[in-house]
Structure prediction request, 124 residues.
Amino acid sequence: MVIDDSRIDRFVAERIIKRSFFAEEVLLMESAISALDYLQAIENIGDLPEVIFLDIRMPVMDGFGFLDSYNTLSDKVKRNCIIAMISSSADVNDHLRARSSQYVACFMEKPLDKEKLDQYFIPS
Prediction:
């Protein structure tokens, strides 16, 4: 799942994920709210995204607001999804805040690319 308000960033992320054979299917969400609604509605664990690429800067609800609400989701969701924060933000506080969340596995700078996927998700 890619959660990003930028249509271009969603498109790039989807292309990189598919071309890198990281995932066959990519769910694209243009807002944190729509992603939360989707995650709340899932009944079958097999339908959960394994990885959620979460942008920080979004209108209405940013990535940190998503994390606050994510905390209220069922344990089945939180146990079965890995969150990777993605951002073009150079703000050190954003990086520190993202890394301090118990739900964030890694912080990746935009744009997403195969090297970053390999670095964070391929065991060495």
Remarks:
- The radius of gyration is 13 Å.
- The helical segments are 7-19, 32-41, 63-70, 75-80, 92-100, 114-121.
- Residues 7-19 form the longest helix (13 residues).
